[in-house]
Automatic annotation (TrEMBL):
Gene3D superfamilies, per database record: P-loop containing nucleotide triphosphate hydrolases (3.40.50.300)
E.C. designation(s): 2.8.2.-
Annotated protein name in UniProt: Sulfotransferase
Gene name tied to this protein: Chst3
Keywords for the protein's UniProt record, in alphabetical order: Membrane, Transferase, Transmembrane, Transmembrane helix
Organism encoding this protein: Mystacornis crossleyi
Keyword Transit peptide in annotation: no
Membrane-spanning residues: 21-37
Pfam families: Sulfotransfer_1
Homology family: Belongs to the sulfotransferase 1 family.
A biological process term (GO) from this entry: sulfur compound metabolic process
Domain of life: Eukaryota
Amino acid sequence: MEIRRALPQDIRELLHRLKMRSKYAVLLVFVISLIIIEKENNFISRVSDKLKQSPQALAEANSTEVSPAPAENGSLASLQELDAAFFQLRSHLYNITLQLAGDGDPGPRRHLLLMATTRTGSSFVGEFFNQQGSIFYLFEPLWHVEKTVTFLPGGASAVGSALVYRDVLKQLLLCDLYILENFISPAPEGHLTPFLFRRGSSHSLCEEPVCTPSTKKVFEKYYCKNRRCGPLNITLAVEACRRKQHVALKTVRIRQLEFLQPLVEDPRLDLRIIQLVRDPRAVLASRMVAFSGKYETWKKWASEGEAPLREEEVQRLRGNCESIRVSAELGLRRPGWLRG
Ligand SMILES: *[C@@H]1O[C@H](CO)[C@@H](O)[C@H](O)[C@H]1NC(C)=O
Ligand SMILES: *[C@@H]1O[C@H](CO)[C@@H](O)[C@H](O)[C@H]1NC(C)=O
Ligand SMILES: *[C@@H]1O[C@H](CO)[C@@H](O)[C@H](O)[C@H]1NC(C)=O
Ligand SMILES: *[C@@H]1O[C@H](CO)[C@@H](O)[C@H](O)[C@H]1NC(C)=O
């Protein structure tokens, strides 16, 4: 158990929660928030002024077990240090993987939901579950649902879509991947589709026997990275899911933890939820780079100083912070349904 002692507190906590009884863990993403350049730091403090609140205090008050993220420091951003931090985290995750997999006793079937917002490092953490042979992992399957549900004129209400997300998640955790066929466009024929979003990010969908010999004439929008496969046979994927010991899903589309209560209470599931939290201001700065087009107003505001910022944009950011806070507070308060 030496490895455990060497782990940073929050990773150790994660391991503990996965193996032990609690159904909820918060993972504060700190390594990734080290990618803070001076400019971003300025930006962050300006956003803070704008929000006139301190989202950093996020639910730490009542938590004894979750360690706070270390202070952001521009000087840590030197690439070398970043590299070192990254490799160390990777080594930690790798060791945890070995431990989870190598216990000999297979233990009960577990279901894992990685709940995050974009640019929190969720792909990175998800990848660590993906790499494990005993886990069936899907990367953002709700993408298809959002495409379909918000397609309606006027858009579905937030509550309405959250309920759809939840019910789809439940089926997916139960390995009923056929549920996605209602949302994949164009609709699969004979349970066959080349359009499953980010298939290549799911190891289980790119290995035998789910990877069938490729057929030259079919255009694969989301293809496997390491090898060529034929269109996805959803029946084969369902069978693979049932064979794996655990199921893990990553999503950025669940905003409120409370919506997941029926899943946690479903006797067919043994659900563990990991919420990834990163300083929302750093998330915003990162999104401005990654999804440049969508954040024009913020970019103008950041570069031109006084360019007006629409109240609605500020409200949206505030809303994001608020739902993260509400969920994390609920999780850390550990209501009955989140206890093991
Ligand atoms: C901490 O707990 C107290 C009492 O249980 C409560 O009043 C307060 O709102 C909690 N604070 C946070 C940040 O959860
Ligand atoms: C932050 O940067 C300052 C100046 O470079 C340095 O003196 C300080 O030790 C750093 N703090 C941390 C926590 O690394
Ligand atoms: C992971 O395990 C290896 C071998 O036991 C050990 O050398 C290494 O220090 C561990 N890494 C971390 C970060 O604990
Ligand atoms: C998909 O896989 C199932 C299960 O092996 C098989 O019965 C079915 O024929 C396959 N579908 C196609 C179109 O190949």
